[in-house]
Structures
1.
Amino acid sequence: MGDLESDFNLKVVLVSFKQCLNEEEEVLLDHYLAGWRGLVSRFLNSLGAIFSFISKDVTAKLQIMERLCSGPQREHYSSLQSMVAYEVGNQLVDLERRSHHPDSGCRTVLRLHRALRWLQLFLEGLRTSPEDARTAVLCTDSYNASLAAYHPWIIRRAVTVAFCTLPTRKVFLEAMNVGSPEQAVEMLGEALPFIEHVYSVSQKLYTEHSLLNLP
């Protein structure tokens, strides 16, 4: 991660998600977590406190996963597929209510998975929107299509109000550190499919195991 942090641009982070999938299309957790660390430390945090509600939660989830990936059962946490097989097979997942296994890997990655969908939709909105598009609208639409369904009303209200203070589309594109806004748009077109692919593989796995609504 040192290279990502010292010479950051968003393309480096997004393309790192390409490394998440091996030839069998397994999601490699070390690369997945590294990609997320780059998104938080070098993109979300650079945009200020507005996104702290997401970046703080993501950081907490990353710490849980890092403990699992380096713990005594780490051989089961090399990929998302091996983790799901291990935890589901050994009844280490709370399927109906959060009780005995509140910090299972399946539950923790599901929260990251949902946040990744929000970020993917928001970046895609930035890529395809006109120059005068309101980022508050783009971000709210992305949030409503992803994370909002899992948040209580008071959080949804606070978040959508906070979105009204977001910087302009141009500021977002410049924060990606890949050149002009036009170059940033081109980069997103090249790099976002890597996140989309990781998301779709993860979504399919969670659907097959009926894990999309873990408490």
2.
Amino acid sequence: ILLLIRNPKDVATSFYHFTNAMSPLPSYETWDDFFVAFMTKKMPWGCYFEYLSKWNKYADDENVMTITYEELKENPVLGVKNIAAFFGFSLTEKELQSVVERSSFQSMKKNSQKTHGAFGNILFRKGGISDWKNLFSEDQNEKMDKAFEEHIGRTKLGTKLKYEVYCKA
């Protein structure tokens, strides 16, 4: 099992834009309204912290490889090499470069009309990291940090996310 996790602040930011673009989902007039819903577990897919907490039980399982979105953005070649090794695939240098290129956000966004139709524009927005800094107030940032620490801060997955997001930022 490949478990891809992401900074909860960017997850919230991405969900905000996604839910407002998808008519069947609840939309929010303001970021502040969305933030309250996100922090009070009123998301259609549940609470991200609870999701991470449940997956943390399997973090040491030899059949589970955890990688962060931030790791893949920082070094996609190393990420693909590690994923291939985990699944027992050996890739030539040419195959490795092809996978890295074809799985890049830019490539997937470019092909999203073919692969996902009109839904592609909703799924592939920016693909960056730290976009949360454009929406979060200082108070919201502190509340998210506190919730992170309370729910998963001392867990294996929490430690991995903290390292990727805070120590490398």
3.
Amino acid sequence: LRQRLAVASAVAGVATAGWLYLRHQKEQQQRARRLRHLRALSLGQGDFELRDTSGTPRRKKDFLGRWVLLYFGFTHCPDVCPEELEKLSRAVELLERDPALPPVQPLFVTVDPERDDAAALARYLRDFHPRLLGLTGTTEQVREAAAKFRVYVSAGPPDADGDYVVDHSVLTFLVGPDGIFRDCYGRSSTAEEVARSVRAHMDTYEALPP
């Protein structure tokens, strides 16, 4: 009886090991397919030239080696942008609770450079995460940066006071340390969901070859 139990246990162990191996292989194949898809998608692949609130030139390649959460918006936005930046800031704070995780760099790129110069961005971003970095530039530079991430931007007509609203895509982009787009989050995503997603990407991260 003991011998039969030992044989049965050995067979079960082999079967379990085989199942785990096949599952591991399947997960690796799924990750490889996703990485190839991201490379083919080429979202956010190109570099950009902008300036931060201190006037320092910034390019996307300056953030290589770091995880980045990037949001396009404008400081005169009445409600959506403040809500999204609060959510972004909260997600970064949640991730910072685990010192074992690599730091995340939050970025805010204006889609309204006519009004959002460096001083305006600095004043506006004081209300959010202390490491949230604001980026601006010329109209052409901002347009090119938005186009790299396929962000829709359209300024509405000015009112009698010269004020106007800029319609734009409401998405927060996750960029990996290799500079490649990894995920994006819309208005329906909570800060907790964004943080969990970013952590999952960190746990399964594989750099794409150049």
